[in-house]
Predict the structure.
Amino acid sequence: MRADAEIAVDPVVLEIVEGTVNSTVAEIELAIERTSMSSMIREQHDFRAAIYDGCRNAISHVSFPSTIEPIFHRYRTQDIHDGDVFVYNDVYLTDGGISHLPDLCVNVPVVLEERVVAFVQSFGHVEDVGGIVPGSLPVASRSIFEEGLMVPPVRVISRDEPNTEVLDLILRNSRYPTSLKVDIYAQIAACRMGARRLAGLFGRYGWKTIEACFDALLTRCKNTLRREVLPKISDGHYEFEDFVGFDGVTEGRHYRIHLALTKSADKLRIDLSRSDVQAAGPINFLASEKIYKKLFAAALVPLAPDMLLNDGVGAVLDVTLPPPGSILNPRFPAPVAQRTVTWLRMLDAFQGALAQALRGQVAAAMDTITVYGMWGSTPSGSDFLLREIIGGGTGGRAFADGLDAVDMIPGSKNLPVEYVEDLYPVRVERVALRRDSGGAGKQRGGMGYEKDVRVLAPTATLYVRACRSFFWNWGVGGGRAGKPTQFVVNPGSAEERVLPPLIQGVTLKAGDLLRVLTAGGGGWGDPLDRDPRLVERDVAAGVVSVEAAEREYGVCLTPETLELVPEMTERTRAKLRVARGALPLVDRGPYARELVEQGRLHLSA
Amino acid sequence: MRVRVGIDTGGTFTDVVVLRDDSSAPVVLKVPSTPAHPADAFIAALSTVSQRLEQDGHRVGLLLHGTTLCTNAVLEGKTAEAIGLIVTEGFRDILEIGRQTVPGGLGKVLLWVKPPRIVPSWLVREVRERMDVNGECLTPLDVSQVRQIVADYRRLGVSSIGISLLHSYANPAHELMVMDVFRQEYPESWVSAGSQIHPEFREYERTLLCLLNASLMPVLSGYLQSIDVAVGEVTVTAPFFLMQSNGGVGSVKVLRERPVLTVLSGPAAGVLAAAFTGRSAGYTNIISFDVGGTSTDIGLIEGGRPRVITHGQIGHYPTTLPMVDVTSIGAGGGSVAWVGPGPSLRVGPRSAGADPGPVCYGKGGLAPTLTDANLVLGRLPLQLAGGAVVLSLDRAWAALEGIGKEFGLSTLQAAQGVVDIAVENMANGIRQVSVRRGFDPRDYALVAFGGAGGLHAAEVAKLLGIPIALIPPHPGVHSALGLLVSELRHEFVCTARRRLHESELVDVTKMFTELEQGAQAKVAGFAEAADWTFERGADLRYRGQGYELTVSVPGGLLERAELNTLLDGFHRRHQQIYGFSLPGEEVELVNLRLTAFAPLQSLPVIEIKEEGTDASAAQIGSRPLFLIEQGGFVDAPVYERARLEARNVIQGPAMVEQVDTSIYIPTGVRGVVDRHGHLVLEMPD
């Protein structure tokens, strides 16, 4: 921001500028979605666009937290021209602006009378940028050098003149060069269109007015946080931690993500410094302070649902990073490919701290981003790479049950069976809600998926990433933890094999069945307070078993017709209430309980 | 004389337009709609108009009807009460899971509550059977299990049932067998199968379509039964057609079986009318701009024909059925101005609707609306609809004063601001449509209608660099006119995913021929119209992309020359829309499409009297208009639309009033009346 003072701007022009910024982001994202090739972009919506002002602040509503700083690490502003396009995916040279290598970032400046007045940015999760596994998402890498090609900020188009040497170098390093080329072109074309729209806006009102409006949008975010969000959070100091159960490389080692939240009248201070040291495997997460702030602010959206979220958050949030060498501040060249696991737990730790500050009015834990990939040759001999981001159940909330089988990433879509069977040598035999996976609660956790995939190819190689395998999605206020994610090969047969949560290079043969079981959300509130009619409904829907209805909820049903028996339910509930004693605030599932009992895990909350 | 009658039932009014085969102006009338008993308004409208026609010695030669009956039933959840669904074993939760998508931005996952599914899990039944992707049967259908399910549904009183089995687009045999069981054992049920409604791959979307269809069958049938007698009386010999989402009309016989084809028909007629208006004024590239009370519908017409798309939304249900490409944004006369977080000045998408309506209606509305702002600025008269509605300037003024204070704006600044923001929202809506189509608004003419289209047409056109805005003679009943200019239209599709390569041409030609033969057999039974023409289309994409572009395909045998034309057309279109193309890359064919058209009777041309350029005979007075460029109110002439003659010219600033709308001509804009009665607004260079 140019000055801290609130510059007076015409509210009408401001609304028009904001509307145009939103509309431009929507146009860019629409164009990328329609033209890209990576299934991660077009089906799973792992791509976003953003707009920055001339002072490198994100102006548009944050749909992914990043920065534009990396460009300026290498290029002086006077060397940036109209018609330039910059590309990068380098994690460490961008301070985590990109946090794993398949996210390729495109940046287009808006230059007006030799001044860089804005930047349009997009990133998209491309199919492959090299490294030791197809898809560039190794789950057992020990260094980022195993994860793919690193592209520092480079100018791929200079004053409208493509730098084909650089593009060729990048494409040569991908297993799927055509797909990568199209994804780069798609992003460049879309960002340039966005830059033209912004140039039009600057032309119409002049840069002084637009810059004043951009500042006002930053101020608005700051003010909304101060006036509408902070007052809802009780002042005080809160701590919470969550755990990543496995790093893909080190046996029997879990990692603590510790978060301390200090709330005062006008600030939220978040201290991550007591988190564990960096991991040997690819679960490290790198981000700058600016990025961390936006990540946390996004979790505050439920407190002011219409708020505009941009770099204006900077003035209200303070983040203390751990020292270099931490799982949340790794040293080059620590591996990072599966960093999603860690930032999700970090967000859960934030939710847990907030749960205390908001007296329980937050959702229980969720993990809705499970990934697996399978590659090999089709019976006709061509290569295939099937990947899916598959959702899970979300945590129960004060006002509603958790959501069944969703992905928290906006716009994400699962893969239609008819699409998968057409393109890949597999048959999908079942896609269902996973019974009893959601944690029991007054508001139960959402159910995860149960999906059966039969291999038709002669052989295939599998990798999986299952989160929440050891430390379950926690329940809150008496709610129980949700069931963990699990991948099972040939379930129910003599060769049944439960896979470790992070594993690559599993060989499957024709006829093998892969069962994907994704995590249920944690429950919210005491399960014995749940309306018995809702339990009856869940049993009829097949998502809660008759046994679980009685065991977890104390709800008794007639054996054949599965109708509620109210008197028996009352008696059972009364008995259960006496038997179980006091309820913990947080239930993390049996593994964490066992560790605590053995004195191997100490919890601050 | 035989005349054609169009009856368009909207939420508030049912509009009727009668067109004779000479060049005389259309007869227009309105009756109130009766949402609780939709058939009543239709019957009232029809009997009113037929009495009038009888007196003049005319007969109804063609009856066309547009209704939002099915749309409203879906939006309000008032379709069949108990709906069932039969799916392939292993997929009972298909509706609960959907596409795993949470609507809204980052963080909304914590707030969203999934709306109830159209069929609750406990009424979904699995049946043992399985087809593969090529339509080969892997597991035969267990017919005895089907019988059991049918008996079950019958016992439970489930009377609308969707049948949606995996890969039925490739082979419908099992779905047809299930339908047969219903026909034999539960003939009074409403049954609909995915392969029969829309044989396209992607199981969730196809399942929803067949369910929506099954759930609407009793709704539309009941309605048609209620109006049957009334229709029979006036149209013993005249054909009766209903508007469909695809911008064509269909016979009642077809739509009784496929009511889902009408769910997005509401805005389609308006776009058709805009195409007609544009064509008669000499324009074939048109942006249709329909500004109503709660929303603005934007449509695009290229080469005189509305664009049809295959990815839309009805309520929270996605639909892949062909529909006229209309984008609806939350900006209309009733859009409310409010204080958003920050604080920020917002207009819409919330609307005061018709009840309580804008503050100036004096029906209890307290929040200032776009209409109130227009009134404060002098752009609306103090009485609407020929005196039926009296507006209170004082109330509007007070409401805008209130919101202005929140931002340190004067009342007039606030009113001007509310209008500017609404106009910008409308322009942004048009811009977003442009990305999907890759067009430059400057090459288009704007056709503005609906209650508030004329108020904002000139400003929106100026903002987008559109040189011409056309206001049709009866902007308030434009959709009913659209019915009268429609043609019969039916769509056919088959999935044919493969590389688009010379070696596939024999196969593709064969598939098109089969599609055409099937279509011909079907449409022959649809309506008496003999003159069907067929247009082919192909959904193409670069191999690996997830979305397709529909490119038209020449008829007859496909050979290398046709292939090259097709590929060139695809690359060009991709370049135009998305800013890049990849001529060396492999192109993939996804679906083959066939559209059958048949014209109704040829259309008359409406002409009005030609006079000189002097419009002063039509001036009925003057009133103060707030003009920002003048910094205050200026006395501006007011004209009556009905008195304007062809060639009359009006120089802005000025207002033109008519019963159903007001038209604002800003400073620098020139309004010219053409010989068809259109008011042509020419923007300054």
User: Anything to note?
Assistant: Chain A touches chain B through 91 residues (CB under 8 Å). The first strand of chain A starts at residue 47 and ends at 53. Residues 1-6 of chain A have pLDDT under 50 and may be disordered. The radius of gyration of chain A is 25 Å.
